[in-house]
Design goal:
Blueprint (H helix, E strand, L loop, with lengths): L3 E8 L4 H4 L6 E4 L4 E8 L2 H13 L4 E7 L5
Amino acid sequence: MSVERFDIVVRGELAPMIVEEFVGFEVVPGHPGSTRLLGTVPDQARLVGLLDLLRGFDVEIESVTHVPGRDD
């Protein structure tokens, strides 16, 4: 997996200490009651680590979507 862009939607708002772990991600409000994290990850291990971090803080993950780049 090369650098890939993802759109991660979680339920609710994220605490600042969680947002700090998502370096390089844009954190924006999603639909009412959700937050979107838009950014890139260098490899699958980093993606899994970020998802594990969210689960560890009891953040409900609504969706994880690969955002195709120009070459996809």
